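for the record, two folds in this file. i put them one after another cuz i was lazy. first one right below, seq on top, structure tokens after. the second one comes after a little note so u can tell where it starts
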Amino acid sequence: MSVNQFTTLSQSSLQDYVDCARRFQLRYLDKLSYPAVESEPALENEKHQQEGEYFHRLIQQYLVGIPSRQISKMANSANLQRWWENFLNAKVLKGLRDLPGVYPEATLSAPLGRYRLMAKYDLIAVKDGKATVFDWKTYRRRPRNEWLSARMQTRVYRALLVHAGTYINNGTNFDPEQVEMIYWFADFPDEPAHFVYTSAQYKRDWDTLLKLAEEIHSTSSYPLTDDRQKCVFCPYRSYCERGIRAGNADQAEAEMEAEELFDVNFEQIGEIAF
């Protein structure tokens, strides 16, 4: 696939491009399969990722009204049981499904240059004209707020909600100051990360996204990253002769990037389009 045939951008594809243009090329343009595991021990890490995906489904079922007692029976591993109990008892999440506007697994999209920018949200909750984006994380370690703030997910999710959130706000745009994003960590339930928003941040983020979209469209070169630490957890590293053995997931904060390598297939889900 050429870059001109590539039509949809997401926080994951943009993060890949920013981290390593070569990874972006291999994954999104060449559509190569993963030749290497992301982190060691491989089976343990794969199980953790699967449990994380299942945990997201449990929360979605809860938010659409299925009784928590019934969902608790489906938390069939030690991790899932712990995460689920933490979710039910978390102060920041109290009363979520009783809010007047609750949109779990919502997908928003909007034009971005020659592309379409899309994002699937774990939850958008609206109350008194304010929109809060919730994102559930099952990281083994609680990341630094500075790391989260710089991630494309934080920038894309807030900016796109401002840009394309009229559908869930009675036809009116959200002002940036009405938007907040909260990362909630299943293993650190009392340490959520809050990111409010401002008009200046929104302008900076949207301008940056437009610039990246234009760069992706016009580029013909996909250099490897100079930061070899990013290669340790990249499943494409063998294509680039950047090592064969994966890094240990318990030894570096960079393991959190590995969990985000699974992107959403936007061709198979509905969307709220702008």
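(here's the note) second protein begins now
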Amino acid sequence: MSPDGDLKIKLVRSLIGYPQAQRKVAWGLGLRKPNDTVVRPDNPGIRGMVRKIPHLVEVEVVKK
């Protein structure tokens, strides 16, 4: 985890049929529909959110 890096997060599966808690995590990241992609700072809070829904997202580390 570097202070000057970002995480590129892509929602690869639909949220339909998953628990409300997992949907809220995806919405909190800014992911609404499949194939939505967001760039978020690489910090422990964002990493924790990604760890809650690893089966729904793909994550790529992006250097600034």
